[in-house]
Each structure stands twice: as structure tokens, then as C-alpha cells.
Write a structure and sequence with these properties.
By secondary structure, the chain is of the alpha+beta class. The chain is 47% helix and 13% strand. It has a five-stranded antiparallel β-sheet, sandwiched between helices.
Amino acid sequence: MDGDLGDFLRSRRARIQPEEVGLPVHGRRRVPGLRREEVAQLAGVSVDYYIRLEQGRGPSVSDAVLDAIARVLRLDETEHTYLRTVARPRGRRERRPAAPRVRPGVQLLLDSMERTPAFVLGRRMDVLAWNALGDAVGGFSRMAPDERNMPRQVFLDPAARDLYPEWAAVAAQTVANLRIGAGRYADDAALCALVGELSLKSEDFRRLWADHEVKECAYGVKRVRHPVAGLLTLPYETLTVPADPEQTIVVYTPEPGSETAERLALLGSWESAHSR
């Protein structure tokens, strides 16, 4: 995923109008947002230095310079972290990353949450493990192993637009979260292949990927139209596994006594009886 740094910086400076940062505007501008020399001036670095940085051929860049550029481009905390990641990629290439495995203790933790849907995502947003109610909501056990991937499901499964009533918001969130992983694991061949496949097969993914939005989906609310349980409103929280920081536990946390909680209880009972 070469070129991420330059593409990201160009997309961010295109959002900032000169008058927003106190710069005079003279005549017609050929490009939207700030010019490279304007970013350099405001960040206190030479124009040549900034151009080389945006082209990905600059020297090792300091935190102070990245902080100054983040300030000029008004990056939020997630974008700032992403900038640091892509500006200083890992030096050692990861030829064959080990296949992700979920520890038995983590699976026991999932299974202990009998009334709460939960599952584990890996670095590529692959679904690595789940509990019974998580499976009842997501249907992971009925998918082929290579289909257990959230971006692939959102963009390549025709049923996704019916499954997610707010599909556009889910799609944008998915891409913004995937881009964080793409910056963090730039040498992951399987992750690069996933981005390539989605770019080739989905026009919506190509458009959203080109926006260079970065956002961690640490918590929020997802609405799911389940074929058995009906419409579910699912607040969620995510927890990083301390011993396996590339793995994230996603837990749906509906309000006790809510309609969704009642529907989940019925769904769990239905799935249990159906499986027997």
C-alpha cells in the first residue's frame, strides 16, 4: 500500500481552506484546500522538506514535525496516530505472518457471556472466534472460512444492504477502521490482497478508500435486520486482548429489558432448540 502517506496528507490538506488558517487568498486556486508550501510555512519546515515527506522520500521525521503538521491539518487523535504510523513504517518486512489463533481462555470468556453476542476480530477484521449468541446474530459458523471477514461481507455480500438498514454508515466505518490496520501492517500481504480484491470488486469500497478517512470503531451502535429476530439495535464495545493486541473482542451490549434484549433472548432460545 505504497503512497499512503502522500495520499493521506493531500486528502487532509484539501479539507482546509486558506482563510481558515489566516492565509490571504489571491486569485483563483488550481487545487482545493492548502498548497504544500502553505502547509510547510505553517508547520515551520522548509518547502523542500515537506514535499519530500509527502512524496515518501524524506528522511526519518521527528515527532515534533509530525505534531506540527497534524496541528496545521487539524487532525484528530486517530488521524494523528495514523500519520505517525504511515510516516514511519516498520523496517522489517513480514514475509509470512503466523495464522491468527484465539487462545482457549479467550474462547472460554466468550462462551461465558451467554446472554451477550460477542466475537473476536483479527488485524484484517477477520472473524476469528465467537460465542453462541454472536453466531446467532452474525451467522459466522454458516460462512466459509474466507467469508468470515467484515469488510468482505459488507461490500461483497449482496445481502449486506438488507442486513444493515444504515448500510452507508456501516460501510464508511468499516473502511475507516480497515485503513488503520492497513497503515499499521503495511507489509501484510494478505491485508494488501484484501484491499486489492475489494477495490477491484466494489465501486463503493474504491470511493470510500480514496477518501482516506481513518477512524477506530471502539464503540458505537449498529442496527441489524435479523431474518428471525427482526430489527436489532446493538450498542457495542470493543476490548483489545492484552496478550494478543492484534485481536479485538467485540461485545454487543443492548440495554437490559429493551426490545432488542428480549429479541436476543428469544433468538438464543430459538437457535438452541433449532440446533438440537
